[in-house]
Amino acid sequence: MDSVAIVTGGSRGIGRATSLAAAKRGYKVVVGYASNKAAADEVVGKIEASNGKAIAVKCDVGNEADILDLFRQADAFGKLGALVNNAGVVDATARVDEMSAARLTRMMNVNVVGSILCAREAVKRMSSKHGGSGGVIVNLSSVAATLGSPAQYVDYAASKGAIDTFTVGLAREVSAEGIRVNGIRPGLIDTEIHASGGEPDRAHRLAHTIPMKRVGTADEIANAVVWLMSDEASYVTGTIVDVSGGR
């Protein structure tokens, strides 16, 4: 396969696992990262050590100019076959009546607007309407979208609810143009995102609430993502898969 896969937020957590899994499936991987160049370079090095091909590109998906540059660099790397909209942010646990406009704007800008803009650029390259030969988009949502996350981060849950709706709508819009669009709703996964919200042990603290009584791993999410990217899922579009241990 000489197809390129862009993974936003590809240097850590679920994104890192997805970058490595996509490379194993034969994709040339563009590892998007917001700030941690060392982590992104480590992922690229690991892929190249296994005879894969990868590049790291700095991209804050809250910035349209960065997104355009990400896709330009991907174009130079090869033909785009897949986009994984993985980049996202959480914030400190808070009630809605404690949230600032700045927090809400950042949350929606990165988690929703950024994902939609990345998808826009992918559709321009993949759609048969634009002369493309098809492709796959996988959006990372969260089980929070179905739970609402009261007294934790209703704003994050709302942003992921928007991603669910966007996934269904875009899938129906471009399904006849050779593009499949699906989502993954992870449950409590053992990644660094909890630390960025001020609760590094959050996943393990809540493990007892999960029917399977354990947290998930980034690899378990990545395996579902690359399945959706593969021809094994050729008749799957407009679907959101819960990978949550039953949560």
From TrEMBL:
PROSITE patterns: ADH_SHORT. It comes from the Bacteria. SUPFAM superfamilies: NAD(P)-binding Rossmann-fold domains. Coiled coil: none annotated. It holds the Pfam family adh_short_C2. One of its GO terms (molecular function) is oxidoreductase activity, acting on CH-OH group of donors. Keywords: Oxidoreductase. Belongs to the short-chain dehydrogenases/reductases (SDR) family. This is Glucose 1-dehydrogenase.
